[in-house]
Amino acid sequence: QVQLVESGGDLVQAGGSLRLSCAASGNIASITAMGWFRQPPGKQRELVARVTSGGDTYYADSAKGRFTISRDSRENTLYLQMDSLKPEDTAVYYCNALRSTAIGTYDYWGQGTQVTVSS
Question: Buried-most residue among 11, 44, 53, 67 (CB within 10 A)?
Fold first, then answer.
């Protein structure tokens, strides 16, 4: 099992910045990738950014140039630095971890943290 706890969501004005954190615990040694998803009001959950255990990163087009994903392996924490925030970034942001074992790959989610960007 892997436990994920997000923090850092807040109300911020457009153009501002926030840093989200996701503390991971449990069987973290076999995590192969971690990422941030978001779910805007009334919409489906979407991938924002992901980082693999090898350090490769992926960003959704909406996040490129504004968001930075990083992982501190010593602290077992995932971050999402969000700059130049826009009202359309308003969503519940979820931390995700993929863990690979001999019998399959497992998906884990945090409880979410609310980000609200006012215009």
Answer: 67
Percent of the chain scoring above 70 in pLDDT: 100
Give the C-alpha separation, 80 to 94, whole Å: 11
Per the DSSP assignment, residues forming a β-bridge with 20 are 80
Q: What is the mean pLDDT of residues 40-46?
A: 96
CB 100 within 8 A of CB 32: yes
**What's the burial of 53, exposed, middle or buried (CB within 10 Å: 0-12/13-18/19+)?**
middle
| Secondary structure (DSSP) of 19-31 | EEEEEEEESGGGE
pLDDT of res. 73: 83
Which two three-digit tokens encode residue 8? 């850092």
What confidence tens digit (pLDDT) does each residue in 63-94 have? 999 999 999 988 899 999 999 999 999 999 99
